[in-house]
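[[Per-residue structure]]
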Amino acid sequence: MRWESLKEALAEHPAEEKKALHQLTTALDETAADVRTLSHQMMPRTLEENGLLPAIEDVLEKSLSASGITFRLEHFRVEDRRFPERVELGVYRVFQELVSNIIRHSAATEVSVQLYTNQERLILVVEDNGCGLGSAGKKEGIGMLNITSRITTLKGEISWQPSPDKGTVAAVRIPITSTAA
């Protein structure tokens, strides 16, 4: 309501109201940033209601389909299985970041995703046929640091390898025992 009244008042008193408008815009921007931070910390609805596998399928459908990148998802021993909430959320966020990096930086046309358990580890393998990490490594960006931080918090590990043809293979291994929960 205040925003609307400011717009009307601007026509009559531009100098005074522009300052108030600027202050309000700053407050709204800060609020939006806070909401964004909170939303990133929250559990996504698909993940919360259906689990990790359907959430990963959802990301693939919504993100890669829209970008024109074809994908294949293989899974083993994860159907209808729930993992500790912290593990699910961490792996989901890492997966989102990997997909985002593929879309923005790799020039890939195909992505292969594997999700499975092996003993007491949850394993996620994401392979693309893009340009690869390059000679510079490109492991220093904020996205890569977020990935590393999340995996470290879950006491997991990630390895980056060149794909057999071209591109990159990221392999994430997260313990799913009570120590990671």
User: Anything to note?
Assistant: The chain has two domains: 2-40, 44-175. The radius of gyration is 21 Å. Residues 74 and 108 are 19 Å apart (CA to CA). The beta strands are 70-76, 110-118, 121-128, 157-162, 168-175.
